[in-house]
Design brief:
The complex is a heterodimer.
Chain A lengths: L7 H8 L2 H22 L2 H18 L7 H19 L2 H9 L3 H4 L5 H20 L2 H11 L4 H8 L3 H19 L1
Chain B lengths: L2 H7 L9 H14 L15 H16 L13 E4 L3 E7 L1 H11 L4 H5 L3 E7 L4 E3 L2 H8 L18 E5 L2 E7 L1 H10 L15 E6 L2 E6 L20 E7 L2 E4 L4 H9 L6 H9 L6 E7 L3 E8 L2 E8 L5 E7 L2 E7 L3 H9 L3
Parallel strand pairs in B: 2-11
Antiparallel strand pairs in B: 1-10, 3-6, 4-5, 5-8, 6-7, 7-10, 8-9, 9-15, 12-13, 13-14, 14-15
The chains are: A mainly alpha, B alpha+beta.
């Protein structure tokens, strides 16, 4: 008789509650996606996501009605904090670390450098924008609906369109 | 730059993640760092909008504070200086009506339905580093709770709001135009009210906040990233309103003549025995409960939401208004209020 292979997911399930595991599995990719919009660095985005889930695990029940909204907001704010915390040198390094999805499309070194510079500038703009505007852009362009953004940032759903347009205008102005 | 270009600038590629590996990493960290999950009792989340509502009520108390009559013409009549506070329940109908009238709940726009609101000295909150600094800048001793529930931890942050003044001038034209925008007919503004002015003053005020997010960036793994304050304590010189002619009774009569005011609200307004010394605190009838309480030896007002998530205690003593707001039971909120020294 052979023992079944150990499944990492099952080990985890034995240690954290099923509700928390369900929440983690349902939201991890989304949380990473939000942080990735801000940081443009998958490894750093995954670090942020881990911190976000740790913070939630410490302070909130997994079945809280506000769990998803909390995680989305925390992902945006934590990523923005991490972005602002980068020193100039590490920001440059991160900008030049072209993500895997970009390497295939941009074989020309000049284009690669130009893309890196643009990414660096975009991150600098995000770091300068007011917190709510930057968070709104990160959430929206990570694919959240207006309703999800409203829940995460605790604003009226009917205001999201206006606030988003203002955030985009501010982004364009800063990027000029 | 259009939306597509913004999307491209922010990166269009979704990161590919391995959730099993991430969960294993999470679990390893929980075990290594000995991180315990939160207790099974759900910690309620007060939405910032709920707090904003309470803060708005507190703001009414604070902004409406301490008009000195020096420098104002001798014809000025002080028409309001609160000696007590009372809840005025607002029904959903009232809120809808006020929401229409207030066009987005901006104070100036809302007041604009009846005239012109102008800050002569706008409130300018600023943060200071200690209670003694707050007291020095406010010009009075800022009291602090001597005992706190275990849910309130850490040091508070301190804010000071300067003495703020505003003038409101009634306008029959504004009233007519606002009513027309809402496709309704408002009762005409009495001639003696049209053009008359109210002088409103509030502050100085001191606000102490526990559990507020710090302005410094939150580094990885530290603290709750979107936590809202656990306790807010406000203290302000009692507000005053003065007028260059109109009386409180005339204002009350005009307010009661407005269409859309519910019978409950009208009854509550009529029930205010002495409107010149009673501060009405609006309380949404369907969302919150309120009743008088004894606090610091005087009559105050308790407001709580129907789910028990948030509480506020408001009272007036020795010329000062006080508020305690947070996620507490009524007895906890009262214990905090009574421990203020």
């Amino acid at each position: 008789m052979t023992l079944p292979a150990r499944d990492p997911g099952r080990i985890v399930a034995a240690a954290v509650s099923p509700a928390f595991e369900g929440l983690f599995r349902a939201e991890y990719a989304r949380v990473v996606g939000i942080a990735h919009r801000v940081l443009a660095d998958q490894a750093e985005a995954e670090d942020v996501a881990q911190d976000v889930f740790i913070s939630f695990y410490r302070g909130h029940p997994a079945d809280a009605a506000y769990a998803r909204a909390w995680l989305h907001a925390a992902a945006a704010h934590a990523a923005l904090n991490a972005l602002r915390g980068r020193d100039r040198r590490s920001r440059r390094e991160a900008a030049q670390a072209v993500p895997p999805d970009a390497t295939a499309a941009q074989e020309d070194p000049a284009e690669t450098v130009a893309a890196s510079e643009t990414r660096e500038e975009v991150r600098a703009v995000l770091a300068r924008l007011p917190e709510r505007s930057a968070a709104m852009l990160a959430l929206r362009y990570a694919g959240l609906s207006y309703a999800e953004i409203a829940a995460a940032l605790d604003v009226r759903a009917s205001s999201v369109g206006t606030l988003l347009r203002r955030a985009e205008d501010a982004f364009r102005r800063e990027l000029r | 730059m259009n939306d597509t270009e913004i999307a491209q600038a922010l990166g269009t590629a979704e990161p590919r993640v391995n959730t099993d590996d991430a969960l294993a990493r999470f679990q390893a960290r929980v075990e290594t760092e000995g991180i315990a999950p939160v207790a099974s009792v759900a910690r309620p989340r007060i939405t910032s909008r709920w707090l904003q509502g309470l803060a708005a009520a507190a703001g009414v108390v604070i902004v409406a504070s301490a008009l000195t009559l020096s420098g104002v013409a001798g014809s000025i009549l002080q028409i309001f200086e609160p000696k007590s506070v009372v809840a005025v329940p607002l029904t959903q109908g009232d809120l809808n009506y006020l929401g229409q009238a207030c066009a987005g709940l901006n104070l100036q726009e809302c007041m604009g339905a009846y005239g012109t609101f102008e800050w002569t000295a706008p409130p300018q909150p600023k943060e200071v580093s200690s209670r003694s600094q707050a007291s020095a800048q406010a010009g009075f001793t800022a009291l602090a709770p001597a005992s706190l529930p275990s849910s309130v931890t850490g040091d508070p942050r301190y804010g000071v709001i300067n003495r703020s003044t505003a003038t409101f001038t009634f306008s029959a034209d504004s009233t007519r135009q606002a009513a027309a925008r809402q496709n309704r007919t408002a009762p005409p503004l009495p001639a003696n009210i049209d053009g008359s002015k109210l002088f409103i003053a509030g502050g100085p005020a001191v606000v102490q906040i526990w559990g507020a997010p710090t302005s410094a960036p939150v580094s990885h793994g530290q603290g709750d990233l979107t936590d809202i304050p656990t306790l807010i304590v406000g203290q302000a010189k009692a507000p005053t309103v003065s007028s260059d002619g109109v009386t409180v009774d005339q204002l009350r009569a005009y307010l009661l003549s407005q269409p859309g005011i519910s019978p409950q609200l009208a009854a509550a307004i009529r029930a205010i025995g002495d409107p010149s010394s009673t501060l009405p605190v609006p309380v949404p009838a369907e969302l919150a409960i309120s009743h008088p309480v004894t606090v610091q030896g005087v009559q105050g007002l308790y407001i709580g939401d129907n789910t028990g998530i948030a509480s506020a205690v408001i009272w007036q003593k020795d010329g000062m208004m006080f508020e305690v707001i947070g996620s507490f039971t009524e007895s906890q909120a009262l214990a905090i209020a009574n421990s203020m020294r």
